[in-house]
Structures are given as C-alpha cells and as structure tokens.
C-alpha cells in the first residue's frame, strides 16, 4: 500500500441472502454472510466474567509487555491500535481499552487472539467463523469506563469483550519482509600504483584486503553467475591468517551473491572447524600438497605457496 494513494474498497451485500463481499480493485478481499440477530441474548455464549489471577506467583502483563512481545513477533502497532491494557500470564483474560472507536477496538480483540498463540511466527487472521456485535450491550458495558474485560475460551475457540464475540478465528503464517530495499552500494575506480608509499599501505592488512577485493570484483565481472564456489588450501597455516573470512566479508556487500566455501585442511581439519563454524565453511580432510583441494571452483585461495619447497607441486594441485 502507498501512503499517498488512497485504497478504495467496494462492499457488495445481497439483500435477499445476506451474502457480502469486499473487493479491492479486481481482487476479492473478504466474503461472508451478514444478518440481523433476532435475540442476541440467546445467541451469545455465556463465559464467566474477568476475575483476579488464580496464579499469584506469575506476573501479569501490562501494555508495554504485550506490545514488546508483539514487536518481537514482527507486528508494529502504534497509537490508537495499542489497545491491550493488561493480560494475565496465560493470556486468557485481560482488559482492553475502549475509546469509542469500533475499528481499533475490534482490531485489538484480534491482537489478543494473537498473543495467545504459543508461537512467535508472524501470522494474520484469514478466516473468522462468526462475529456477533451487540452495540446496545457494548455501550452499556462501556458506559462511564474506558477499559472492558476480555476473556478467551480455548475449548470453544471464542473470545468475548463487551458486546462483541469472535468465534473460530483462524490465522495463517506470512513471511517477514526484511530489508526489502537493500542499501545502495557505492563504488569508485581508483588508480593504485604498484609501488605505493602511502601511509595506509604500510599496514599489512590493508593491501591484503585491497587485493582480495580486486580479485573478487574481477571474478564477479567474468564468471557470469551469482552462486560462487570457493575453496582455500590451509597448508598448515594458522587459522587467523586464512583468507576465506575476508572473502566472505567482501561478498557480503554484494547484492544477491551467494558463496559456497570450503577449506582443504588435511589432517588438521578438526583444528580449523571450530574457527570457521560461524562462517558456515565446510572443512574437508583434503591436502593440497597431495591432491586438488576441490573441483569446479570459481576461486581457489592459498597463502605462502611461493616460499614452500614443493611450490610447483602445490600450484599444480591448485590449478587442477
């Protein structure tokens, strides 16, 4: 929905059958059946009124506690829609704020249904079996007060507050939208001399990260895919000097790029597993001094190869 463009609904009611539909554009949003109750006292469910907590050892929830829990689940209620005043620890009974607004009050009843769910998944109501609205009884119950007791009966799947009764509310899970629009990535082209005496390049970490960034950009420009397979040969180097964590940090800033990384650690596989478990890097027992670290890779990493006695052998295995 756009904040600038109003949303218009078309409500259609068939006077003969009472069937109705609510459409938004060419999409049907809600369908159901409406009728005038002849005797609301007979149709209403009799549920005991709100009483004091039967579990004094458990703390009740105030409005701040309730909406903190809802924010954790992914809901962002604010203003008049924050109508739950308090709830018992089991979230079966509580009090709702009544300020004369039927829309926010009915939405608050649905919120009370949500906090009663024993899950923190994001859900929205998609079906209600029955809604009973008794305006006269509701206005009588709310006369002179701004809070009304609410009670939820799990056995008959009914929630009652004032002159309103909701029965058979069904919820469906929806996916959370996180960072729908990713932050813009700014890039620039800078000439870096081969023999650079700049102060920043005296730091040994800076040129390494800079070189890895350049290699990664060249790879992305020429490989033609967003799913990369990367492997590194440990060659018995300390875990702190491995290059794979730096590569993953660089790729983390690239939109839609996914990398499957592995480390050929040889006999010291257990030693590297604890260090790389947070990066989700697969550690294998392959030894690059004896065989290829992996196959069909887009990038192969290694360090200290040129100073090894078996340099040519290792380079041959890395190139396989």
Give me the secondary-structure topology.
Blueprint lengths: L9 E4 L5 E6 L2 E7 L6 H4 L17 E2 H11 L10 E4 L5 E5 L4 H14 L7 E11 L1 H7 L5 E7 L4 E4 L2 E10 L31 H19 L3 E7 L10 H9 L5 E7 L4 H8 L5 E3 L14 E3 L9 H9 L1
Parallel strand pairs: 11-12, 11-14, 12-13
Antiparallel strand pairs: 1-2, 2-3, 4-5, 5-6, 6-8, 7-10, 8-9, 9-10
Helix pairs in contact: 5-6
Describe the model:
The mean pLDDT is 85. By secondary structure, the protein is of the alpha+beta class. The relative contact order is 0.08. The chain is built from eight helices and 14 strands.
Summarize the biggest pleated sheet.
Answer: 7 strands, antiparallel
Counted up, domains total 3
The CATH architecture of the largest domain can be given as: Roll
What's the gyration radius in Å?
A: 32 Å
Q: Which class of secondary structure composition applies to the elements?
A: alpha+beta
Order of helices and strands: EEEHEHEEHEHEEEHEHEHEEH
How would the global form be characterised?
Answer: elongated
Record field, number of beta strands: 14
Summarize model confidence as the mean pLDDT: 85
* CATH fold title of the largest domain: Thiol Ester Dehydrase, Chain A
**Strand arrangement in the largest pleated sheet:** 4-5-6-8-9-10-7
If helices are DSSP runs of H or I spanning 4 or more residues, what is the number of helices?
8
Percent range for β-strand residues = 25-35%
Bin the helical content: 25-40%
Q: Whole-Å distance between the termini?
A: 53 Å
Superfamily (CATH H level) name of the largest domain: Polyketide synthase dehydratase
Instruction: Kindly provide the name of the CATH class of the largest domain.
Output: Alpha Beta
């Amino acid at each position: 929905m756009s904040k600038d463009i109003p949303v218009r609904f078309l409500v259609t009611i068939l006077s003969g059958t009472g069937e109705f539909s609510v459409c938004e554009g060419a999409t049907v949003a809600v369908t159901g059946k409406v009728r005038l109750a002849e005797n609301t006292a007979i149709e209403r469910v009799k549920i005991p009124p709100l009483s004091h907590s039967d579990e004094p050892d458990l703390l009740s929830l105030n409005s701040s506690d309730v909406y903190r829990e809802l924010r954790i689940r992914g809901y962002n209620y604010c203003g008049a829609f924050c109508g739950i005043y308090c709830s018992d620890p089991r979230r079966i009974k509580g009090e709702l704020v009544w300020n004369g607004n039927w829309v926010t009050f009915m939405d608050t009843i649905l919120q009370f249904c949500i906090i009663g769910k024993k899950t923190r998944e994001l859900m929205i109501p998609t079906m209600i079996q029955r809604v009973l609205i008794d305006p006269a009884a509701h206005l009588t119950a709310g006369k002179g007060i701004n809070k009304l007791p609410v009670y939820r009966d799990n056995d008959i799947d009914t929630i009652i507050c004032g002159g309103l009764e909701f029965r058979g509310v069904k919820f469906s899970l929806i996916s959370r939208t996180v960072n729908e629009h990713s932050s813009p990535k700014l890039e620039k082209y800078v000439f870096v001399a081969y023999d650079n005496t700049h102060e920043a390049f005296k730091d040994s970490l800076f040129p390494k990260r800079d070189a890895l960034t350049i290699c990664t950009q060249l790879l992305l420009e020429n490989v033609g895919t967003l799913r990369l397979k990367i492997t590194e040969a440990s060659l018995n180097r300390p875990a702190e000097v491995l290059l794979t964590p730096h590569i993953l940090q660089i790729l983390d800033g690239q939109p839609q790029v996914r990398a499957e990384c592995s480390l050929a650690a040889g006999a010291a596989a257990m030693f590297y597993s604890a260090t790389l478990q947070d990066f989700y890097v697969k550690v294998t027992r392959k030894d690059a001094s004896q065989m290829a670290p992996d196959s069909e890779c887009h990038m192969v990493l290694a360090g200290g190869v040129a100073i090894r006695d078996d340099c040519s052998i290792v380079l041959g295995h890395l190139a396989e």
